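pls design
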């Protein structure tokens, strides 16, 4: 199975407003329905390309524009479609600030 490389990291970064996101390989594997080794291989490849840095339990996005290129095109399409279909459903973070649904520039 070929996962959208980096999609989950970018989406998590957008929702939290941070470039460092929690990354538990086992949890992510369960969530995506793949083996843990698949998640490990992909994150290792992303780190080798200089797109992220993996630490214990987290990943830090180092080169967001290149990571976005590595992600599937759905990353750029889905937020726009979501807002077109549900313009009043803009989610808020726990502190009350709007979450980013459109890709950051």
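designed seq:
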């Amino acid at each position: 199975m070929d996962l959208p490389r980096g999609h989950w990291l970018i989406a998590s970064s957008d929702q939290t407003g941070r470039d460092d996101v929690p990354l538990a390989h086992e949890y992510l594997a369960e969530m995506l329905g793949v083996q843990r080794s698949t998640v490990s291989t992909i994150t290792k490849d992303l780190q080798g390309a200089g797109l992220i840095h993996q630490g214990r339990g987290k990943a830090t996005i180092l080169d967001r524009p290149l990571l976005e290129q590595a992600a599937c095109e759905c990353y750029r399409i889905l937020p726009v479609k979501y807002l077109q279909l549900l313009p009043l459903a803009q989610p808020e973070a726990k502190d009350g600030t709007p979450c980013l649904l459109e890709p950051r520039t």
